[in-house]
Amino acid sequence: MKILDFGSINIDEVFQVDHFVRPGETMSTLGYTKNCGGKGLNQSIALARAGAQVYHACMVGEGAGFLVETMRESGVDVSLMKEIDAPAGRAIIQVNESGQNCILLFGGSNHQNTEEYIRWVIDQFEAGDILLLQNELNLTDTIINCAAEKGMRIVLNPSPMNEALTKAPLEKVEYFILNEVEGEEIAGGQKDPEAICDALLEKYPGCKVVLTLGKHGVMYKDAETKATHGIYDVKRVDSTAAGDTFTGYFLACLAEGLSIDVILEKASKASSIAVGRPGAAPSIPTRQEVDTTDIAPLNL
After folding, report:
1. Which long-range contacts (CB under 8 A, 24 or more apart) does 215-224 make?
2. pLDDT tens per residue, range 48-61
3. Are 209 and 197 in contact (CB under 8 A)?
């Protein structure tokens, strides 16, 4: 079984701030770093560091060579990525003193995919292989349709959520990995976590829902099974890649055939470790770290 992450790569420009900048305000920052980022890149690195065989596909813009090299060094297969003459995707990230963040995205080369390129990539895979998607690319609906035609298992992390994604063929998605805000929008306004899961299961019969709940942990639900897991006791430093780390580890452990309880445990622990470190991709732990780090779980 191979895993294809058809996802974004971004140059992350991170500004440490006392508070998020307000309308009309000019504010000096407490620090600045330039990092590898993009939900696709982060999730591919998380998959690789978790031990999965992962291939990444996307258009690579100007100045993004170091992103590709970082992915290669982390164990991601980058042979399907294509260089083009266009600006790279970028994210302007503010991180405040409590570790919370706000992010401004520029799509750049992430929005330059073509149907021809998509079909060429999907043709490298077989029925039963896994496709992971986020929503930082163009032509998401085309990617889903091509993968479904091939018989791939489709996993969607619908972030950022927007109206265009609600019109995509989401009935072809097997796993939804999403947070409460995204779940509420897809589920038609439901706010209670279990109600969100139930609404998605009713709307897309046969799907499986993984709903992350921030400090309240995570809930998994399908037609037959429900499971939950709490977070771990770490000091919050930077939550930028926490969700991407969870997604990568969840999928890597799923591909191993582990039970849902163990999958949630590993993914939750990996995500908590990432929260305790600065940066996006640099914060993602290796599988050995996740398996050997001794931190206490907090109950839901």
Report:
1. 216/300, 217/268, 217/298, 217/300, 218/246, 218/264, 218/267, 218/268, 219/193, 219/194, 220/260, 220/264, 221/194, 221/197
2. 999 999 999 999 99
3. yes
